[in-house]
Write a structure and sequence with these properties.
The chain has 163 residues and is α+β, with helices and mostly antiparallel strands. It folds into two domains: 90 residues, Alpha-Beta Plaits (2-Layer Sandwich); 51 residues. The protein contains four helices and six strands. Strand 4 and strand 5 form a beta hairpin. The longest helix is centred in the last third of the chain and has 66 residues. One of its GO terms (cellular component) is ribosome. Belongs to the universal ribosomal protein uL23 family. Keywords: Ribonucleoprotein, Ribosomal protein, RNA-binding, rRNA-binding. Part of the 50S ribosomal subunit. Contacts protein L29, and trigger factor when it is bound to the ribosome.
Length: 163
């Protein structure tokens, strides 16, 4: 594996992994093609720590039932990484980048909502203009029909009088 980001997929956060963190043992989901030495180098590079020991094992797929249907969870490779004394990995920053992204997204959402409202207002104006034009056309058409009916009835009356 060439890319360090492809080796470590992400941390595994369970009750057991939280207990192991107090003993400087961290659990990660890793690529199925990786080995101990690659995992050790990747953790040292990404988190800037010294690794004491790495245990890797494959977690088998498990059968899960949802109603009558059966399915399986995907199997994956798990690495338990023990750090040398004095080193820790801070998986939980005080300022979470997700919160910052959420705030940026909310600002972007406000901008997009404003644009949407502006577009709605423009469409409402256009719809009103179209409705007015249609009303004028309808009035003209009804006037033309009434004048044509009057002319036809007048012609029919003239024909009836002539007979």
């Amino acid at each position: 594996m060439n890319n360090v980001n492809e080796i470590i997929k992400g941390p595994i956060l369970t009750e057991k992994s939280y207990q192991l963190m107090s003993a400087s043992v961290y659990s990660f989901k890793v690529s199925p093609k990786t080995n101990r030495s690659e995992t050790k180098k990747a953790v040292e590079y990404i988190f800037n720590v010294k690794v004491d020991k790495v245990n890797i094992f494959t977690v088998p797929k498990k059968e899960k039932k949802l109603g009558k249907s059966k399915g399986f969870t995907t199997k994956y490779k798990k690495a338990l990484v023990k750090l040398k004394p004095g080193y820790t990995i801070n998986l939980f920053d005080e300022e979470s980048p997700q919160v910052d992204n959420f705030n940026q997204n909310s600002e972007n959402n406000n901008e997009t909502m404003a644009k949407i409202e502006q577009k709605k207002a423009e469409l409402d104006v256009k719809n009103q203009e179209i409705a007015q034009k249609l009303a004028k056309k309808h009035e003209k058409a009804s006037e033309n029909l009434t004048t044509e009916k009057i002319e036809k009835t007048a012609e029919n009356q003239d024909k009836g009088d002539a007979n």
